[in-house]
Amino acid sequence: MNEHQSFLHFPTQGNVSRRNFLKMAASLGISAAALDALFLSSRTAYAATPGLVGYWPLDNGSGNSATDVSGGNHNGTLNGSPAWTTGKSGTALSFNGSSTTVDINHNVINTNTNFSVAAWVQLASLNNWSTAVSQDGANVSGFFLQYTSPGAGADGGKFAFTLLNSDATTATPVRATSPFSPVANTWYHLVGVYDTANQQIRLYVNGALAATRPVSSAWNATGETVIGRAKFGSSVDYWPGLIDDVQISNQALSNSDVTSLYQGVPALTPLRPPSVPLIVRNPYVSTWQNSDVSPGNWSTFWNGNVKAITGIVRVDGTSYVFFGAPGGIGTTQNATQVQLEVTATQSRYVFHAGPVTLYVNFLSPIEATNLQNLSIPFGYIFVQAHSNDGNTHSVSVYMDISGEWAHGTNTTLINWAYQTVNTGTQNVNAFSVTPASPQVLAETNDYPSWGSAIWATNGPGFTYQSGQDTVVRSLAVSQGSLNNSMDTTMPRAINDRWPVFGFNFNLGALGGTPNAPLIFVLGHVRQPAVSYQGGQVPPLWQAYWSNWIQMLGATYNDATALTILTRANALDASIAQKAVAAGGAHYAALCALAARQAFGGIELVNTASSPWLFLKEISSDGNVSTIDVIYPMFPILYYLNPNLLSLILAPILHYVESGLWPQVYCVHDLGSSYPNANGHNDGGGENMQVEETSNMLIMAAAYILQASDASSYSNAHYTIFRQWANYLNASNGGNPNRPNALDPLLQNQTDDFTGSIAHSTNLALKGIIAIGAMGIIAHAAGNSADQQFYSSTAINLIGQWTQLSKDPSQAHLDIAYNEADTAQGTGPGTYSLKYNALPDRILGLNLIPTSVLQQEANWYIQKENQYGVPLDSRHTYTKADWEIWTAGSTDNAQLRQFFIDALYKFANTSPSRVPFTDWYDTINNTQNGFQARPVIGGLFSILARIKSGH
What we know:
CATH class of the largest domain: Mainly Alpha
Helix content: 25-40%
Strand order of the largest sheet: 23-30-31-32-33-43-39-36-35-41
Number of helices: 18
Structural class: alpha+beta
Mean pLDDT: 95
Low-confidence stretches: 1-15, 26-47
Strand content: 25-35%
CATH architecture of the largest domain: Alpha/alpha barrel
Shape: globular
Radius of gyration: 29 Å
Number of domains: 3
Largest sheet: 10 strands, mixed
């Protein structure tokens, strides 16, 4: 489906979704039933749902009510606390399967005349009877839009629209059922129709007629309409999962009506990602899809270099490409991509391949509280299929990766091997692909020049083959199987007949029941992971498994048991629900898109004493553990597991405390080129004295406020923390009355692409907050004298800062103090986003006067462009991370929501198809630079502040 078909065009407002148009009409007192047809452009005409008498978009997003926007005033009441979460469009409700409902409190329709009921649904569990929408009679429901129990015979485990022939538990059901069983955690659109003229009921699934059953008559259920359960003697069949966009009509909808209704929401949920995260686990396992649809497009590394994944499904002898853009392999056609949902850990695709529906789920777990699992450098692909037309079809599924996964240059010679790994419960078949002449601890085009790509799977009807791309793929197309053979012409260049490594599964005669998931494991292993001061440092996973083969066996068992999916689904749901509560559906969508990217910039290693967490400054300098890149991403670490903050600060503290770093302020990074943490023993590098020193103190204090070892941690590092705080409080050398924190003079700072700023107000704010953070550290260390000193110093400095930063108009703060050497364009009449106010709130310091924060918020509102607020008055570009930091720091709800909505709009519409850029233009909607950087973890700032309790 073309997602743009889901919108109505207004000359002044652009594209407006059909759903939102109906809400706009309702707000004007126009019922949807009164809207006969809307002809809003020369190409698009949509009719309102005929006879619409109840419409619950479930876009309230908070509270205990579900608003009816049809004009019928059938508002619902939430019972049992169903949770607001990300929906198919906007927000939805999550139901627990045992006690949660939306009660309309009266009946909406007469069930013995024409009516239709529609809803978007997701099932978290497929074990029991579950009803999405119903209307009570005295004893039973008058209708059931439902999922049937798998034990219910031929109709079991399917979607259904059901009527009973009387208001009794002994009544006979008439049930129109789908020809297939659904897959969990996938959106489906259901429509049930009772048509008196044709004496039938109809069920539609995803816009298509699924079943028709004859019904001579029906009875009128006069009880309440309910979302989330049914009635059968008592309340039963509670829905386990999500429900969105519920509509009820007093007419029998036609096929075209239902198609229009289905096309009323986008195919891409909850946003159109600029790039889709596929396999994203660390700086070297970071593969993306830079397009809306995967058939006909290659997956790439974060920098755009192809890391090919090919997927082909063969149905009754016809082959459909569902991933990649293979050519020269015989007659194929592209599968039709009908859906993509992006969560924090998963990218779930749905395809139609003729009479077969294919589900392909890319999972990159984020297990922030389990270091063993977090250290695994593998992602997972789950593939399921079923017939969608009620017939059985011969189906095979083929997937491969190319030699491009082994190295960053296609002229490089590679070797490959195939082996069977016994996991203790099953055998796993694995390819490993390795440079013929590895260069340990070296990169080529940002990709490792050592280590091995790992590609593994297991399942029924399995065959494998390595060899030239066109040869291997042609076999999958022509015969639906491979030859269980290895191409032994190696080493050879990646681009020499393009060797690929294919797996094929013959699923046999496939009916409406989905196959057990085919599970593929894909990633890259390196030993060592990094170097530190010339010594090799192993990956943390080696502390748990002696080699990748053992790790593969353990993680494949975890994936086969689907427990890895269960944990991922729980995290996805938690982030979605809490983000919706914090900032609405758009904020939840941004957090979902940001999560894997943030964790894709870091990796765990193991030292003799403890684990460390390293970061790569992706797409900018490529430095190791750049502190002003850790700083903007720290909200996601703080939110998901503050202990990760201590692990990412640990190598920096170790280095500066070793004496190898000679300066009194903090180092900028641990090495100029990842993965080699060689330090800067000469005291050089890209020094940002106040910037990095302040960043470290702020992040250390944030950890300490959440840590169980706050006292021991503070004391262990107290000497260096105090040294840094004293540097910030020492005279800046230009004015004896101004310390470095209050006036950094001309220093570089994190936004170095804007150039150095003399007397920067935002940098000074950070320095002052860092001195306040030292008060927190001193308190944890038990040093009350230092606590009093640093806390009072910060209070004194913030008063001076407020006066020095004020514009002569007194309406806002400037970019820089108004000094004799203040550069043109940074003094009076200017502004910048004071994103460094966020840690003042997270740490609970409350140094910045409320009046100043309010004044700044009011000023930013005046500077809003279509896609955001510029970083400062010198430019039209901005930084995505700093926008949401600013949103997290403000109590102005209007400004906070603008930042969220503007950034969402950028991500959802930008023509710059790269992994989420953090540097973009607020007017022309394009990338200025940077992509795939872990700083995007800063989008969790609002959640981090909520977690802090301040």
